[in-house]
């Protein structure tokens, strides 16, 4: 038994409709996936790290909590050179800019805190450093150390009409470090700026190295503990961290346009196919009626 041509045409028409329905489903899934990926990238930006070279830094602020210790000397040196010590443990010249601030700590119950704020180095090209010497006569403590903090610009303190509030804010937001007695602590600072969606933050990172102090003072003068601290910039680079949205709206729009165009073409083809099937059925029905009329007339 042979298969009629209308039957074959109907079969292939239905097959094409099924194929275009499958392609329409794939196009719809692709559109959904494209929109989901775009929203995912918008809501989860990635971090981009760049390094900005500078000729000099703004002088940072070095906050020192001395307690019972005393600042004996503070001077600027260059090119990583520190002259040999002369009369360690005795007061010497101080050529640093220092500001003393007394304020109420944010984490203590109405307890006054006294801090010395030293203007830090800025000339990174000539390897400027700050060398400080401290002395503490208390020997009954289990551990001896001086606590310090760093903030970005010394002028942030001097420009404030109420420096006490600035100090409280620094203590609340900045990290605290220490350097120990009997050692020279060499601190190399680096600056990291993070740019968020709505704000900007500045963070200090540091590398420190300890060298033991060989105390050659007479035995009668060794009743005080000596501290030595050096602060300098590690390198002339500022690390900048930015949040970047990797989603490209134009590529997503292009993909969606292609998807919607395919959907439109598929819908248009399905419409024409259905119209063609209806015409074919009407024609087949007319042919049947004509054949029946001819049989009846005969």
Give structural notes.
With 298 residues, the protein is of the alpha+beta class. The protein folds into two domains: 1-42; 53-245, Acid-sensing ion channels like domains (Acid-sensing ion channels like fold, Sandwich). The chain has helices at residues 5-43, 155-158, 163-173, 249-297, and strands at 46-53, 61-65, 70-77, 98-104, 112-119, 129-136, 145-151, 177-180, 183-195, 200-212, 225-244. Strands 1, 3, 6, 9, 10 and 11 form a six-stranded mixed sheet that branches. Strands 4-5-2-7-8 form a five-stranded antiparallel sheet. Helix 1 packs antiparallel against helix 4. The chain is rod-shaped. The protein starts with a helix and ends with a helix. The mean pLDDT is 82. Pfam families: TMEM206 (PF15122). The chain crosses the membrane at residues 12-32, 250-278. Belongs to the proton-activated chloride channel family.
Helical percentage: 25-40%
Please count the helical segments: 4
Cα shape: rod-shaped
| Mean model confidence by pLDDT | 82
Instruction: Give the percentage of residues in beta strands.
Output: 25-35%
Q: Helix and strand string, N-terminal first? A: HEEEEEEEHHEEEEH
Instruction: Specify the biggest β-sheet.
Output: 6 strands, mixed
State the CATH class of the largest domain: Mainly Beta
């Amino acid at each position: 038994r042979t298969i009629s041509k209308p039957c074959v045409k109907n079969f292939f028409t239905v097959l094409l409709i099924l194929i275009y329905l499958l392609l329409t489903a794939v196009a719809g899934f692709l559109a959904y996936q494209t929109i989901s990926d775009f929203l995912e990238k918008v809501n989860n930006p990635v971090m981009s790290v760049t390094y900005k070279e500078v000729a000099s830094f703004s002088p940072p602020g070095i906050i020192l909590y001395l307690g019972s210790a005393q600042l004996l000397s503070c001077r600027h040196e260059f090119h990583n050179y520190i002259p040999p010590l002369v009369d360690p443990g005795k007061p010497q010249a101080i050529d640093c800019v220092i500001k003393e601030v007394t304020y109420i700590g944010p984490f203590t119950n109405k307890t006054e805190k006294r801090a010395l704020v030293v203007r830090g180095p800025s000339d990174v090209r000539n390897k400027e450093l700050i060398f400080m010497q401290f002395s503490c006569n208390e020997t009954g403590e289990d551990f001896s150390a001086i606590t310090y903090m760093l903030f970005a610009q010394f002028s942030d303190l001097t420009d404030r009409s109420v420096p006490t509030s600035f100090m409280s804010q620094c203590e609340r937001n900045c990290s605290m470090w220490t350097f120990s007695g009997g050692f020279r602590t060499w601190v190399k600072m680096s600056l990291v700026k993070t740019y968020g969606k709505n704000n900007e933050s500045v963070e200090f990172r540091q590398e420190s190295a300890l060298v033991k102090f060989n105390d050659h003072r007479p035995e009668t003068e060794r009743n005080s503990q000596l501290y030595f601290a050096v602060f300098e910039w590690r390198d002339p680079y500022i690390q900048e961290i930015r949040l970047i949205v990797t989603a490209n709206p134009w590529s997503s729009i292009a993909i969606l346009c292609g998807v919607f165009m395919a959907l439109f073409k598929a819908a248009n083809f399905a419409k024409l196919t259905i119209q063609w099937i209806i015409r074919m059925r009407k024609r087949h029905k007319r042919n049947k009626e004509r054949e029946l009329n001819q049989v009846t007339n005969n």
